[in-house]
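Late entry, written up from scratch paper. The run itself happened at the end of the previous shift, but nothing got recorded in the book at the time, so transcribing now.
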Amino acid sequence: MKPVPDNYFMQRLLLLIAMTLSASSVLGQQIQTPEPILLWPATAPGEKGDIAEERDTTPPDPKVAPEQYIIRLGNVSKPTITVYRPAPEKDTGAAVVVCPGGGYSILAYNLEGTEVCQWLNVIGVTGILLKYRVPGRGEFRHSASLQDAQRALGLVRHRAREWNLDPQRIGVLGFSAGGHLSAALSTNYQTRTYPVIDEADQVSSRPDFTILIYPAYLTTKDDLTRLAPEIKVDAQTPPAFIVMTQDDSVKVENAYTYSLALKNARVSAELHVYPTGGHGYGLRPSQHGVSQWPQRAAEWLKAQGWLTKK
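Output as recorded:
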């Protein structure tokens, strides 16, 4: 096998963007990082101020190229959302809340967060990056994170008109543990898991659609054909697009079992299973076929009507 050039991943990422936008549009637009918005008006529910300072926990390594670096954000106690808007001429009015993974211990903040929001902008979607609380705390490891996800979806829908978004085209996209969080949000939206604070908590926190990329923890440990008890699929569960590989270390059964539950509930789902690619690739290109998932996801969003301007 030929060695991979140092700039291989960046070249492929630029190619991916160029396939959707013209080169002039890409080169003529400077990416600026928007300001984060605090998710809670005061301290997040249950926070006691006993979490260490938020920081990137990735150890320095001069051998890692910038385009391969992963921010592993830890000790998040002040959750936020950051709104990444597409160019006005591309804006479809759709939005997606993005949930990075990290085993409910850290957040892969660029790999499965900022880079994903920038890709969503390319296809005309507003990316809402959710920085949810980690490490896990509460009764279950996802308890605090689910509160953040419910609050985020409701807040985005509450402010949809202000942000020129369609309140009926707000989805959620998650990777690994963020995939579990996205599925938990998609099946636990009837009531808030925290005391209602304001008007944002009185609107629906149900996503209109769900995108799960190598989701984790969706099944029980003892039986990979059974959904975890907090994943309660029914006929009102949002339609889903799901991607996983057969060699994923967290088990491809997560994707199969969730997809089958959707089928049995008569909920639309599109499942892509690839033979190789492992886990934790985000949307960074590779020589594995699974790296084509962003194109497939964009096709699904378009076919489902989520990218149609209204």
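The mean pLDDT is 91.
(Scratch paper discarded after transcription.)
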